[in-house]
Structure formats: structure tokens, C-alpha cells
Design goal:
The complex is a heterodimer of chains A (86) and B (572).
Chain A (H helix, E strand, L loop, with lengths): L4 H16 L20 H15 L5 H6 L3 H16 L1
Chain B lengths: L2 H7 L9 E8 L4 H13 L3 E6 L5 H6 L4 H4 L4 E5 L2 H9 L9 H19 L3 E5 L20 H18 L3 E4 L1 H8 L1 H4 L2 H7 L8 H15 L6 E4 L10 H4 L12 H16 L3 E7 L2 H10 L10 E7 L3 H12 L6 E4 L3 H10 L15 H8 L9 H4 L1 H11 L9 H7 L3 E5 L6 H10 L12 H9 L3 E10 L2 E15 L2 E9 L8 H15 L4 E4 L13 H4 L3 E3 L2 E5 L11 E2 L1
Parallel strand pairs in B: 1-2, 1-3, 3-4, 4-5, 6-7, 6-9, 7-8, 10-17, 13-14
Antiparallel strand pairs in B: 10-11, 11-12, 12-13, 14-16, 15-16
Helix pairs in contact in B: 1-2, 2-11, 6-7, 21-22
Classes of the chains: A mainly alpha (86), B alpha/beta (572).
Chain lengths: 86, 572
């Protein structure tokens, strides 16, 4: 069963709270790095690596450059999981 | 340790830990490495106060006498140059200058080292380069001095030579660590491409450990002594039971795994680590292979203090410590037995007790990974240390006891299942009667058929003993065969116990159970006998110790006046 975008968003939110060491972060699909305090390039890459590890997926360099907001990343994750599951 | 764990440590309370001022300078993004070092410090009880220079500011920070670097008054300066940056620079070097590329880099590094020495008393911890191959020449690069692989290897080699001449410079062998895990695990191209972090997240704790190990050694935290258990640690098998000919070393059984450990211990001894033995054995039995076995690599003269007896190991280690007069925190204790490891950890908290893998062939690879014997000096004197301590050991008094063993045994929550022999236990029981030599009062050997006959005869009562404690199940570790001699006398035909559970109150527990069984049959006396062999001298006083009275070459216990012996083992 491939999870929904909402489920993936909730997981990403949980992972981010851990990486940023901040439990009060609430992500929405339209959230961008500018909306979250401390979301710099280093935290960003750490988040990406943690997300990869959690979902057992890999983003390529181009994808990482392309995501405009959290929602795009979550959609990408769902697509990857669906492909892996099929 | 994961990087995420080290990051978690950053939120912990460092206030009680000793401060060490460390400066970190790199030509790639060093924020993660700084966090990793800080977090790893917590594991090693060091509060690193880290000054982190801005990205790629080595020249300005080092060459300017009034820089923030020197203002931070570091005790340690970590210089960390990435191989990836080095490759960029190499590619920007004109072809005719490439053969001299390494020398150019080395002269800059040397200049940094000497400039730092002018402005600071800090010790330099210089990370060598991960040795990447740019795959331009393939393997042939080794024969092309103007290739990158040739130059980077040359730099690493020359760094060792240059560091030998500089008292304030220590190298962290990042190249060696990277070789162990592989470049694919030491470097993450996306992490480097997006954030200029040259170490993969998985590699950061490894690099942090390298830096911390050197700092620890520089602050006097070096290990000085390795204490070795014998049975199943230095050789395979139990010498008291198997005999010297059958212990596994050399070509016998898993012998080569134990050879490997012995060879490693011998090399440590040659470089000045004191070796000690702490074994539950008769001293003569334990020493014999060191003197006579042709395949033994360790010899008696390699061992500074040799302790083999049946006392608890925490006490014995305290005696070894008193003899050597070095700190417990500079001692490492190797033992295959988790019970002994935990006992020692509990009573000697400062000592380092590696959690040895179960597979002996993994002993040395595991121990090598821990890098326990980091040092910052090596001299002629180190190689002669063993003899000095052997002389000291000969003078010292080994009688004192230190340890609250009752408290420890009580904390183990030991329970024992006591059953008559059953279909399941008979083969194991027969095997124990065949193979046990040390804790075996009469050494009568039985076959499976013999045991079946005994347990179905009305004249015998049989008991098998299993033991488990909070650390796990030890399985079937003892057996008793009682024979009814007459209307009021039970004779202990067989009493065998595993030496692994010695002195935990199992002896007392077994006596209590024998008494219960004999009383149920209306017996008034329990009679035991010790038949000496070449291997069972450890139990020659057992019946006396358990309160039996000597009577005409045998031992007798009056069941009418017997009071239950103290033990911390409960019936399961």
C-alpha cells in the first residue's frame, strides 16, 4: 500500500522536528524554507538524507534543486514509493 | 554511533565535564564535523569548546597573529583539508607543475605548522587526505608522477615524515579510516555538491572519534594495560576440562582466530602495553601452555602479572591494579564471558571492558575498530616495560579482597530450574559426565544407556540444574546423582558442575536441593566422596566448605541438624 501525500507529509514533519530539534514545526504542502526558522542549506541536506533513510528512497541531485516547497517533495516521495511498490 | 545520536548529545549537560578548547579549520563546510566532535566529546566525557573558523579561512586565520583563531586560545587546532578541494586545485594546476604539486602543498602545510607554533602553544591535529582516485589514468596512475593519485599518496606519506620532526603536530589518519569504510561511505557526492560537506553523515562520527582519540591520548588518557582471560579468549576451549593438548590454537579447531588475538596482544606488548592474565583456573594448569605448548604465541615472559585462581575477577583485577599501580581507567579487560564482563564493569567502573563478539575470528577486527591503544609517544623505554612490572609483581601481596560479592550476586536475580533427568536432558547429562574434569567430584563416566538405567531404577535420585540470571540463560550447568545406600543413607554418586557458574552460590544451592531430595526419601545422612584426579583439585575441599564432616576418607552431612545454606539462587 502506497501511503497518501498527507501521510508522507506527517512523516516528513516528524523527521524534520527531529533534525531541527524543534517540536513546534508544523508543515503544510505550501511550506518553503523561508517559513521555518533555522532551515538553512545544512539543515536542509540533513533533512533530505534523513527522509531518504526513512523511506528507503534516493533523490537525485536534479530533484533536490527543483523542489519548490514541501508538497512537491512529498509528491515526489509518494511517486517513488508507488514505483517501488509496483 | 550515528551522527543523529551525536547531535542529540549537544542538548545534554556538559557542565561537569572538563573543558578542552579546540579550533577547527577546514577548506570545506565544517559545521557538521564541529557538531560531531562536540557530541562525540560527550561520549568521552570531554566538554569541547570549539572555535570554528569561517569556510576556507585557513590562510588568513593562521598567518595573522591577531586572528580570532589565536584569540580563542586553542589547546588543539584541527586542520582538515578535503581531498575533493585538493583535486579541484590539482586540476587548476598547469601540466608542467603537476609533478611538483605535492611538494607545493606540503610546503604550505609546513608553513602553517611553523606559523602556528610561533603564535600559539596549541597542539596541531592534522587530518591526512582521503586517497581518492580520479580515474584519469586508472591503475596506471601509480607509474605517472604527474597524476593525482600519485601526488595525493605522496602528500600523505610525506606528512608522516614531516610530522615526525614536529613535536607539536599529530596526524589523524583519516585516509586509513576512509579505506576501512570505503570512499562511497566516507563521502556523499550530493552532500558535497549541495552543501560543500566533504564527509558523509555516516563518516562524521568516525572522523570525530579520530580527533577525540588523539586529544584523549594527549591529555594522558592512554591505555597502559591489557588484561586477558584465558579459556575461550586467548585459546579455544577450557583447559581444565579439555587438557593442554586439546585447547584450540594453531591448526586445531578455531585455533587461527585465537592466534590472531595472541599475535595482536604480543605486538601491543612489544610497543609497551603491559599484559596481564586474569583467569579462573588452577595456576599450574593455566601457565602450562605458556611454557610448553608449541603453538602459543604469548609466552610467560610476555605477561607482567599472571593471576589464575578461583576468586572473583573483580578482586583479581583490583590486585593486578594494586601491583601495577596504574589507574583503572588505563586498563582494558578482555573476557568472552558476559557474566565476568558485567561483574567487572559493576565493581570496577573505570576499567574498559569491550563487549567482545561471540565469534572469536571477530575479536581482533572488533578491537582494532575501537582503537583503544591510541598513544602520542613511543620510546625505547616502552619496549622494556614488561620486565619492570614482572619484578614488581613478584614482590606484591595478593591476599586482600575488595569486592561486595554478595551484593552483586543478589542483584543478578538468579533462578535455577531443578528437575530429574528427562528425555531431553539425558544426552547432555551423559556428555557432561564424559567431558567434565574440573568440577567433578568422582569423575565417573556414564553413557546415555547408563543414565537411562539409573534414572529408571528406584535406588537413584537424579537432578539436573539449569541457571539463568538477568543477563541470560546459562543452560544446564550442574547435575547430581544420588544413590540410596541403606534405609537412612544417600550417597552422592556424581556431582558435576560447569566452571562458568562457579562461586555464585550454585554449590550451596545444590547442597540445599540434595538435602531436600534426600529428606523426602526419609534419609538421615548424606555421604560424599572426593576422588582426586590430575584435574579436579579445585573441588578437593568442596565438601568441607559446604559443612560436611570428614569421616573415614568420606564426607558426611547429618540431615537432622542441617541448616539451609545461604544462597542467592531461587528455585524456578
Amino acid at each position: 500500500m502506497t501511503p497518501t501525500t498527507e501521510q508522507v507529509l506527517a512523516e516528513v514533519n516528524r523527521i524534520m522536528c527531529g533534525v531541527f530539534n524543534n517540536r513546534s514545526i508544523v508543515l503544510k504542502p505550501e511550506t518553503t524554507a523561508r517559513d521555518v526558522e533555522g532551515w538553512d542549506s545544512l539543515n536542509h541536506i540533513e533533512l533530505v538524507l534523513a527522509v531518504e533513510k526513512h523511506f528507503k528512497i534516493k533523490f537525485n541531485f536534479a530533484e533536490l534543486q527543483k523542489f519548490k516547497n514541501v508538497g512537491e517533495m512529498c509528491n515526489n516521495i509518494v511517486a517513488k514509493l508507488a514505483k517501488a511498490g509496483s | 554511533m550515528l551522527f543523529a545520536d551525536l547531535k542529540q548529545n549537544l542538548g545534554k549537560d556538559f557542565s561537569a565535564l572538563p573543558k578542552r578548547r579546540l579550533a577547527l579549520l577546514g577548506d570545506s563546510a565544517t559545521q557538521f564535523l564541529a557538531k560531531a566532535i562536540k557530541g562525540y566529546g560527550f561520549e568521552e566525557k570531554i566538554n569541547f569548546e570549539i572555535y570554528e573558523a569561517d569556510y576556507d579561512q585557513l590562510n588568513s586565520q593562521i598567518l595573522d597573529a591577531h586572528s580570532e583563531l589565536y584569540h580563542s586560545q586553542p589547546e588543539y587546532i584541527v586542520l582538515y583539508l578535503s581531498a575533493e578541494k585538493l583535486l579541484d586545485r590539482f586540476c587548476a594546476t598547469s601540466l608542467d607543475a603537476r609533478s611538483g604539486f605535492g611538494d607545493q602543498v606540503l610546503s604550505e602545510i609546513q608553513n602553517w605548522w611553523s606559523t602556528i607554533a610561533q603564535h600559539s602553544t596549541a597542539k596541531i591535529i592534522h587530518c591526512n587526505f582521503v586517497e581518492i582516485n580520479d580515474a584519469v589514468f586508472g591503475h596506471f596512475a601509480a607509474k605517472v608522477p604527474s597524476s593525482f593519485p600519485f601526488q595525493i599518496k605522496k602528500i600523505n606519506f610525506e606528512l608522516m615524515r614531516l610530522a615526525q620532526k614536529e613535536k607539536h603536530v599529530y596526524l589523524a589518519d583519516i585516509a586509513g579510516l576512509s579505506n576501512q569504510v570505503g570512499y562511497a561511505n566516507a563521502h556523499d557526492p550530493r552532500l558535497y555538491a549541495t552543501a560543500k560537506v566533504a564527509f558523509a553523515l555516516e563518516f562524521l562520527p568516525i572522523a570525530a572519534k579520530a580527533v577525540t582519540d588523539v586529544v584523549k591520548a594527549l591529555t594522558g588518557g592512554s591505555m597502559k594495560c591489557l588484561i586477558l582471560d584465558l579459556d575461550n579468549t586467548v585459546w579455544g576451549g577450557v583447559i581444565g576440562d579439555d587438557g593442554m593438548e586439546n585447547i584450540q590454537i594453531g591448526d586445531l579447531g578455531m585455533g587461527h582466530a585465537f592466534d590472531h588475538l595472541q599475535r595482536w596482544a604480543k605486538e601491543l606488548q612489544r610497543r609497551g602495553i603491559i599484559l596481564a592474565v586474569c583467569s579462573k583456573n588452577n595456576e599450574d594448569t593455566a601457565k602450562k601452555p605458556f611454557q610448553e605448548h608449541p603453538d602459543m604465541i604469548l609466552r610467560l615472559e610476555d605477561i607482567a602479572v599472571f593471576v589464575a585462581n578461583w576468586d572473583n575477577k573483580a578482586d583479581n583485577i583490583k590486585r593486578i591494579q594494586a601491583t601495577l599501580n596504574i589507574g583503572f581507567d588505563s586498563m582494558v579487560f578482555l573476557d568472552d564471558n558476559p557474566f565476568e564482563r558485567n561483574l567487572v564493569r559493576e565493581h570496577v567502573p573505570a576499567i574498559v571492558v569491550p563487549e567482545l563478539p561471540e565469534d572469536p575470528s571477530m575479536y581482533v577486527p572488533y578491537l582494532a575498530g575501537l582503537n583503544l591503544f591510541e598513544t602520542t609517544s613511543f620510546s625505547e623505554e616502552d619496549t622494556q616495560r614488561t620486565q619492570q612490572y614482572q619484578a614488581e609483581a613478584a614482590r606484591s601481596d595478593f591476599q586482600k579482597t575488595f569486592t561486595d560479592i554478595d551484593g552483586y550476586l543478589n542483584s543478578l536475580a538468579m533462578v535455577s530450574e531443578v528437575k530429574p533427568f528427562d528425555d531431553f536432558s539425558v544426552p547432555r547429562v551423559a556428555q557432561l559426565t564424559q567431558r567434565s574434569n574440573q568440577f567433578n567430584l568422582r569423575t565417573i563416566r556414564y553413557t546415555v544407556a547408563d543414565i537411562d538405567r539409573l534414572r529408571n531404577s528406584g535406588d537413584y535420585a537424579t537432578m539436573s540444574f539449569q541457571l539463568e540470571d538477568k543477563f541470560g540463560d546459562h543452560g544446564l550447568i550442574g547435575l547430581i546423582i544420588l544413590k540410596q545406600l541403606d534405609a537412612s543413607t544417600a550417597f552422592i554418586d556424581t556431582w558435576i558442575m560447569s566452571c562458568r557458574v562457579l562461586k555464585r552460590g550454585m554449590e550451596e544451592f545444590i547442597v540445599n536441593q540434595m538435602v531436600r531430595s534426600a529428606r523426602e526419601r526419609g534419609m538421615k545422612r548424606l555421604v560424599g566422596e572426593y576422588i582426586p584426579t590430575s584435574k579436579n583439585s579445585m573441588v578437593k575441599n568442596l565438601y568441607g566448605d559446604m559443612g560436611f564432616a570428614a569421616n573415614d576418607g568420606k564426607w558426611e552431612l547429618n540431615l537432622e541438624t542441617f541448616k539451609e545454606l545461604k544462597t542467592y539462587i531461587q528455585v524456578k
